[in-house]
Amino acid sequence: MKRIGLVALCCALAGALIGDVTSSPAPRPQEQEAAAPAAAAAGDDDTAGADALTSELAGMRRSLHEISLLLSAALDQQEMSVLMTRIELKQRRLQPLEVSLRGARGSLESVKDERSHLTDMIEMMREEAGKDTPDAESLKPEVERGRKQLDRLAEREATLRQRIIELEDDLARNQEDIATLEEMVDERLGLR
User: Fold this and answer.
1) Residue 15 has pLDDT above 70, yes or no
2) How far is Cα 169 from Cα 161, in angstroms, rounded to an integer?
């Protein structure tokens, strides 16, 4: 939109300059009669001067058109540079997200393994506590502590699962943004 306005402004300026020279108002009849003898003598000089002026204005018009083309190309290049910078920044943001996601997934697996191991231990302690042995009574508080630890691990697991979902969503959003920006670059380069 800016580019079209700049081109139109340059063309309008050139047109106005050329139009002012070529479309001067017609002289009044009295002026024509008084100027007739002088015009005959200077007629050739005026025509040559007008032609030179018209030629110079046409050259200015071409120059303005070339300037508008150069400005348009510079604007295109600047817009492409901004798009490429945005892609680069988005790609830099992906790496920490991927690292965080791998870390959260690793932590989740550790918590799941710990819960499985603790569940097995609690089950063994329950079996021992159910037997009629001297150590059976001392295992009941251990079983209760194990259950509380299982509850804490379940909460930790739920927190990690939620964090993983958030990271996956953020990662997907950034990947979509990059794909959109790359499509814009491809369109500008005429690849799509």
Assistant:
1) no
2) 12
**How far from 44 is each of 33, 39, 129, 139, CA to CA, in Å?**
18, 9, 126, 124
- Given the structure tokens 């259950």, which residue do they identify? 147
Q: Which residue has the tokens 């499509």?
A: 183
Task: Decide if 164 contacts 105 (C-beta within 8 A).
Answer: yes
> Tokens 């670059």 appear where?
185
Q: Which of 104, 105, 97 has its CA nearest to residue 175?
A: 97
CA distance 113 to 125: 18
Q: What is the CB neighbour count within 10 angstroms for residue 167?
A: 19
Q: What is the token pair recorded at 41?
A: 């003598």
pLDDT tens-digit profile of 59-79? 999 999 999 999 999 998 999
Answer positive or negative: Cα dihedral of 11, 14, 17, 19.
negative
Give kind and range of the element (H or E) at residue 121.
Answer: helix 29-130
Distance CA(91)–CA(16), nearest Å, equals 49
- Scored b (16 or more CB within 10 A) or e, 128-161 reads ebeeeeeeeeebeeebeebeeeeeebeebbeebe
**Model confidence pLDDT, tens digit, residues 24-56:** 455 555 555 554 555 555 556 678 888 888 999
Which range has the worst mean pLDDT, 8-17, 128-137, 161-170, 178-187? Answer: 8-17
